[in-house]
Design a protein that fits this description.
It contains twelve helices and 16 strands. With about 400 residues, the chain is of the alpha/beta class.
Length: about 400
């Protein structure tokens, strides 16, 4: 074979390689996967966050994307089922080869997703109200999992909720008798077990514990046991459906105590609907009653794209969009999984007040800094009102709670 023939074959090979790359070059530079509970029993808590993320990314793409490159979004429904999450993980990470996956679902979907992340070296962003794993700040953490959602692990949450209950009882001059409520799933039970131990350390008497089955429609028996225990305060770390069901059962049986819940996408709207002045939500993000400028932007985007969900339910998805944008924007070009992982390990994102602290990750700690507050219904103004100052919660240290007048 002559030198000329070899040169011609090399040129043809190069042209074939270039032509095979043309579709890829024409595609956007960033590819994002979403796996979330868009349907099924958990969807009321997670679909609004998915929608908030979608409208943020749609608006970003329509304004030119990131440096002229748009974000391709492959969004799949996992129905909060581990089997569906496993299928989604394979499609997104193996077939679609996304740069990262935004996971917005129950913790029951984590195992197949996290295992696939390790196998494919694909970063996972826990967004919306996705619960942060308890070891996300430990040396043995999954190096591909990053907590950008609104829900700290139940241990961190306990360091806020138990001091909050104690502070409310002291403010109102009550001799505190506390009952703990969980949904009967491992992570929720872990949360109230920790609260029970912490309560003992803080001199708070726990008089009852109840774990409610996920599909329970009638919890009157559990409510009766709480009342019989003499509890005048209840706190729960669980989906908001558990709190709403239990509060309803307690009130129907004449209980007039305080119920302190963590939060969910529907937390603010739940306060408005129930108008119960002794029902307290204790989130890690700002409610719309704060009237932050970003909330007007979300409202405008929702109207533009025909999303009829309330703004307060879209907040966490919007914050997730800000995290995704910052990660891709700071990823060195050409952005691949390895470079994106390096970027995430030093990322800092200001969410315009949705979270009171910037989302900051390091190679050693993949948790979002945790600050909490509390909201309740105010009968005087007929509106939701913040009833405590914000409090930063650190590892192993019970929060300092300042109840507002």
């Amino acid at each position: 074979m002559t030198h000329r023939t070899l040169s011609l074959l090399a040129a043809i090979t190069a042209l074939l390689e270039l032509s095979s790359q043309m579709p890829a070059l024409a595609q956007s530079e960033f590819k994002l996967g979403i796996s979330g509970a868009a349907t099924g029993p958990a969807s009321p808590s997670y679909l609004p966050h998915i929608e908030g993320l979608r409208i943020y990314l749609r608006q970003l793409n329509e304004s030119g994307g990131i440096g002229g490159k748009k974000i391709d979004v492959v969004s799949l429904d996992d129905k909060a089922a581990p089997s569906e999450a496993a299928v989604n993980a394979k499609r997104l990470m193996d077939d679609e080869k996304v740069l990262t996956v935004a996971l917005m679902s129950l913790s029951s979907t984590y195992t197949p997703m996290f295992q696939a992340a390790i196998r494919t070296k694909t970063p996972i962003l826990l967004l919306g109200q996705a619960v942060c794993p308890g070891n996300a700040g430990a040396p043995n953490k999954n190096p591909y999992v990053f907590c950008g959602g609104s829900t700290s692990d139940p241990i961190t949450a306990g360091y806020w909720q138990v001091p909050l209950v104690k502070a409310l009882a002291q403010k109102h001059g009550h001799a505190l008798k506390l009952a703990l409520v969980a949904m009967d799933i491992p992570i929720s039970r872990q949360g109230i077990d920790h609260m029970e131990n912490l309560a003992a350390q803080l001199g708070v008497q726990v008089v009852d514990k109840q774990a409610i089955p996920p599909a329970a429609a009638d919890v009157s028996g559990a409510a009766a046991r709480i009342i019989a225990s003499g509890a005048n305060y209840v706190t729960s770390w669980a989906p908001v459906t558990t709190a709403v069901t239990m509060v309803g059962a307690l009130r129907r049986q004449g209980w007039d105590g305080w119920y302190v819940h963590n939060h969910s996408a529907e937390a603010e709207d739940t306060l408005r609907q129930l108008k119960d002045p002794k029902l307290v939500m204790s989130p890690e993000y700002a409610f719309t009653v704060e009237k932050l400028p970003v909330m007007a932007k979300i409202e405008a985007a929702a109207k533009k794209y025909g999303v009829s969900l309330p703004v307060d339910t879209l907040l966490l998805g919007w914050a997730g969009g800000m995290i995704v944008e910052a990660a891709f924007k700071q990823c060195p070009s050409p952005c691949n999984k390895e470079r994106l992982l390096e970027t995430l390990n030093k990322l800092s994102v200001d969410t315009a007040g949705i979270y009171p602290d910037p989302v900051q990750w390091s190679k050693d700690d993949h948790r979002r800094p945790a600050s909490f507050t509390a909201y309740a219904w105010d009968p005087k103004t007929q509106s939701v009102k913040r009833i405590t100052e914000w409090s930063r919660v650190r590892d192993g240290v019970p929060a300092t709670v300042k109840v507002l007048d």
